[in-house]
Amino acid sequence: QVQLQESGPGLVKPSQTLSLTCTVSGGSITTSYYAWSWIRQPPGKGLEWMGVINYDGSTAYSPSLKSRTSISRDTSKNQFTLQLSSVTPEDTAVYYCAREPYYPTHRYDYWGQGTQVTVSS
After folding, report:
1. Count of C-beta atoms within a 10 Å radius of residue 42
2. What does each C-alpha distance from 78 to 38, 98, 106 come to in angstroms?
3. CB-hemisphere CA count at 13 Å for 55?
4. Which pLDDT does position 106 carry in this prediction?
5. How far apart are CA 121 and CA 110, in angstroms?
6. Neighbour count for residue 121 (Cβ, 10 Å)
7. CA of 109: how far to CAs of 65, 80, 81, 87, 112, in Å?
8. How far apart are CA 113 and CA 56, in angstroms?
9. Taking all residues of the chain, what is their mean pLDDT, rounded to a whole number?
């Protein structure tokens, strides 16, 4: 059973960089051909795909967030990390990590529970 767990600060100040880590258990993030995504849901809005890191380490980002987003991984810890720079209150959301079996279908078979991030001074 694959499990994903998000971790990181729940409160970030405007203009700072948000950093979240997803720890994966029950499966390796380097296993072909899985992809590992970050998705968020602002209050009262739908899900927004932010970006992905593939099994081979390649990345792709949402065009609307590309200039502020970076996804990296630590294969020794089976983790991947999201960094979102220059945050504003509009970045307040529940952030999820998820596994995508067939990239780029945007269909996910395993999700983390989500972590609330609030951007406020």
Report:
1. 14
2. 15, 14, 21
3. 13
4. 87
5. 33
6. 9
7. 24, 17, 19, 29, 10
8. 25
9. 96
Task: Determine how β-strand 11-12 pairs with β-strand 115-119.
Answer: parallel
pLDDT at 65: 96
What helix, strand, coil percent values describe the chain, rounded to 5?
A: 5, 50, 45
Record the tokens describing residue 114, joined without a space: 């989500």
Strands 3-7 and 18-25, bridge-based pairing:
antiparallel
The token duo for 7 is 């971790």
- Rounded Cα gap, residues 11 and 56, in angstroms: 32
Q: How do residues 3-41 score in pLDDT, each as one tens digit?
A: 999 999 999 999 999 999 999 999 999 999 999 999 999
Q: To which residue do tokens 């390649």 refer?
A: 58
68: three-class secondary structure by DSSP: helix
CA distance 85 to 103: 25
A 10 A CB-CB count for 75 gives: 11
Burial class from Cβ neighbours inside 10 Å (0-12, 13-18, 19+) for residue 55 reads: middle
User: Across the strands, what pairs with 18?
Assistant: 84
